What does this fold into?
Amino acid sequence: MAEISLPVIVTAISNSDQESFVAGTLFTQGWSVIHRAVDFDSLVQFCATHQDQISTALLLYSPDLNDFNPVVFEDLVLNFRQIIGFASTISDGAPDDSLHQIPTTATQLATFIRGYVRSPLIRKLTPLMQSQKRSRIIAISSAGSCTGASTVAINLAYELSIKEKKILLIDANLSEANIAIYLDQRNLMDEELWRLTSPFLYIKELTRQRIGEFDSFIEKASAEFDFIILDIGAIHDLSSHFSDKRADSLVITWAGDHADDLWIITRPDRIGKERFKKVTSILNRTSVNSSITLVLNMRSNGRKGQEEEKAFLETATTHKAQHLYVLPVDTRNTDDSAQSRGALAEVNERGILRKALVAIASEMI
It folds into this structure.
């Protein structure tokens, strides 16, 4: 799918404190704030001299900007990619349904703005109402490739289902769907809702063609299941994902905004270490609503494993994660489970990786 240019920001907000909060927050999230209008004339002049830039820009404005002219404004905004109106705290006018209250925290603001730049394919993606929400949603991602994230997602889902929790495992890796292959499930993408694969465990595969149904689907699933586990694939650059409009990025954006937990899994080799450092560095300057869990997978045995774990913790502790997990390498059992198209518990219930995942599942419940 082709790259889509990221929107830049123009602010025209009357209250200086509010404008500083909005511009400063978006700047720290990696957005480019190209103009900060102090009055309506400043906005008009900038638009007249920077027509190419505003065609890709998101305008954030308040209608009580000094010398605001609504007639001129109606023509002006047609040049922008998108606009969002905010009701300023100093405004005495009547409430306007087209205006929004400025969120009070950086995380809420980032989530709000990201919702506006998503593709029209996903129109709502609003946070699920707590009264309707039953599921705990866990998104599992990779800091790079070949980290074993799909193996972790499948087996975590299986262990939770053994504890008689109703589980939905969703393959949301639109680039490289793996779960149907691992579990030998044919035509999974054609399933209207979800497919039962073992007691209490259901699976689903997302596709780009049906991504527009994701919002209604996840809302229905949240009322049905105890846990929803999303395998969302590799995250290379969170800030780009959260501003991008490709289908792959839309799911990652949703996970950062609405999942209860976002797991980021890394591997201990040199490439894994470098990619993990990059992801955590970006994570430190990107606001997400989800609780973060950082996972080192495939830790070696003995002294080598101790060094791998030390290096992981040195990087992981630079970010305030909710949980840090270290999972041992278990090549024989993971190979056997892949060959048999089953879970780790089915090939060796005493395997070291299986035991580690049992402990995590028990902690989650």
